[in-house]
Amino acid sequence: MDVRHTNWYDFGSLAELRSRAAHQPGSEVTGVAQQFESLFLNLMLKEMRKSIQKSGLLGSDAMETYEQMFDQQVALGMAKAGGIGIGKFVENQLAQNNTKKPSVINDEDIETTTVLRQRFLINRER
Description:
Number of domains: 1
Structural class: mainly alpha
Shape: elongated
Protein backbone atom coordinates (compact mmCIF):
# COMPACT_ATOMS: atom_id res chain seq x y z
CA MET A 1 0.00 0.00 0.00
CA ASP A 2 1.16 3.46 -0.80
CA VAL A 3 -0.15 6.60 0.85
CA ARG A 4 0.41 9.33 -1.69
CA HIS A 5 1.52 11.95 0.77
CA THR A 6 4.28 11.69 3.32
CA ASN A 7 3.28 14.59 5.52
CA TRP A 8 0.08 14.82 7.52
CA TYR A 9 -0.35 18.47 6.55
CA ASP A 10 0.14 17.96 2.80
CA PHE A 11 -3.26 19.24 1.66
CA GLY A 12 -2.13 19.49 -1.97
CA SER A 13 -1.99 15.71 -2.28
CA LEU A 14 -5.48 15.45 -0.77
CA ALA A 15 -6.79 17.84 -3.42
CA GLU A 16 -4.99 15.82 -6.10
CA LEU A 17 -6.56 12.61 -4.77
CA ARG A 18 -10.01 14.22 -4.83
CA SER A 19 -9.46 15.42 -8.40
CA ARG A 20 -8.38 11.98 -9.64
CA ALA A 21 -11.30 10.33 -7.86
CA ALA A 22 -13.74 12.79 -9.44
CA HIS A 23 -12.48 12.01 -12.94
CA GLN A 24 -12.23 8.24 -12.44
CA PRO A 25 -14.50 7.02 -9.63
CA GLY A 26 -13.11 3.93 -7.99
CA SER A 27 -9.52 4.53 -9.11
CA GLU A 28 -8.37 5.99 -5.80
CA VAL A 29 -10.03 3.53 -3.44
CA THR A 30 -6.71 2.42 -1.97
CA GLY A 31 -5.58 5.98 -1.17
CA VAL A 32 -8.90 6.86 0.43
CA ALA A 33 -8.88 3.68 2.52
CA GLN A 34 -5.33 4.38 3.70
CA GLN A 35 -6.20 7.93 4.65
CA PHE A 36 -9.23 6.70 6.58
CA GLU A 37 -7.02 4.22 8.44
CA SER A 38 -4.51 6.99 9.15
CA LEU A 39 -7.26 9.15 10.67
CA PHE A 40 -8.53 6.23 12.72
CA LEU A 41 -5.05 5.41 14.01
CA ASN A 42 -4.47 9.07 14.87
CA LEU A 43 -7.66 9.15 16.95
CA MET A 44 -6.64 5.91 18.63
CA LEU A 45 -3.19 7.27 19.50
CA LYS A 46 -4.74 10.50 20.77
CA GLU A 47 -7.06 8.59 23.11
CA MET A 48 -4.22 6.34 24.25
CA ARG A 49 -2.12 9.39 25.07
CA LYS A 50 -5.00 10.83 27.15
CA SER A 51 -4.92 7.72 29.34
CA ILE A 52 -1.31 8.34 30.37
CA GLN A 53 -0.83 10.25 33.58
CA LYS A 54 0.92 13.58 32.89
CA SER A 55 3.86 14.76 34.95
CA GLY A 56 4.53 18.42 35.60
CA LEU A 57 8.08 18.14 34.26
CA LEU A 58 7.26 18.13 30.54
CA GLY A 59 3.66 19.32 30.60
CA SER A 60 3.38 22.41 28.40
CA ASP A 61 1.33 23.56 25.44
CA ALA A 62 4.38 23.25 23.20
CA MET A 63 4.92 19.66 24.30
CA GLU A 64 1.27 18.79 23.64
CA THR A 65 1.51 20.31 20.16
CA TYR A 66 4.66 18.29 19.47
CA GLU A 67 2.98 15.10 20.70
CA GLN A 68 -0.04 15.71 18.45
CA MET A 69 2.18 16.24 15.40
CA PHE A 70 4.22 13.16 16.31
CA ASP A 71 1.08 11.03 16.69
CA GLN A 72 -0.20 12.24 13.31
CA GLN A 73 3.04 11.28 11.59
CA VAL A 74 3.16 7.91 13.37
CA ALA A 75 -0.43 7.20 12.28
CA LEU A 76 0.43 8.12 8.70
CA GLY A 77 3.50 5.88 8.77
CA MET A 78 1.51 3.00 10.25
CA ALA A 79 -1.17 3.33 7.56
CA LYS A 80 1.51 3.45 4.88
CA ALA A 81 3.06 0.24 6.23
CA GLY A 82 -0.23 -1.66 6.21
CA GLY A 83 -1.71 -0.46 9.48
CA ILE A 84 -3.96 -2.74 11.49
CA GLY A 85 -6.12 -3.94 8.60
CA ILE A 86 -8.87 -1.35 8.64
CA GLY A 87 -7.66 0.24 5.41
CA LYS A 88 -7.79 -3.08 3.55
CA PHE A 89 -11.29 -3.75 4.90
CA VAL A 90 -12.51 -0.30 3.84
CA GLU A 91 -10.88 -0.77 0.44
CA ASN A 92 -12.71 -4.08 -0.06
CA GLN A 93 -16.03 -2.54 0.98
CA LEU A 94 -15.60 0.44 -1.35
CA ALA A 95 -14.61 -1.86 -4.22
CA GLN A 96 -17.75 -3.96 -3.67
CA ASN A 97 -19.94 -0.84 -3.62
CA ASN A 98 -18.37 0.41 -6.87
CA THR A 99 -19.13 -2.84 -8.70
CA LYS A 100 -22.83 -2.88 -7.82
CA LYS A 101 -25.02 -1.63 -10.62
CA PRO A 102 -28.11 0.42 -9.83
CA SER A 103 -31.30 -1.55 -10.15
CA VAL A 104 -33.65 -0.67 -12.98
CA ILE A 105 -37.14 0.36 -11.93
CA ASN A 106 -39.84 -1.15 -14.08
CA ASP A 107 -43.36 0.19 -14.64
CA GLU A 108 -44.90 -1.99 -11.91
CA ASP A 109 -42.54 -0.56 -9.30
CA ILE A 110 -43.40 2.98 -10.30
CA GLU A 111 -47.10 2.32 -10.00
CA THR A 112 -46.66 0.70 -6.58
CA THR A 113 -44.54 3.61 -5.41
CA THR A 114 -47.14 6.08 -6.61
CA VAL A 115 -49.96 4.23 -4.86
CA LEU A 116 -47.98 4.02 -1.61
CA ARG A 117 -47.17 7.73 -1.77
CA GLN A 118 -50.83 8.59 -2.30
CA ARG A 119 -51.86 6.40 0.65
CA PHE A 120 -49.25 8.09 2.82
CA LEU A 121 -50.55 11.54 1.91
CA ILE A 122 -54.19 10.51 2.55
CA ASN A 123 -53.29 9.07 5.98
CA ARG A 124 -51.25 12.15 6.81
CA GLU A 125 -54.20 14.46 6.13
CA ARG A 126 -56.43 12.58 8.58
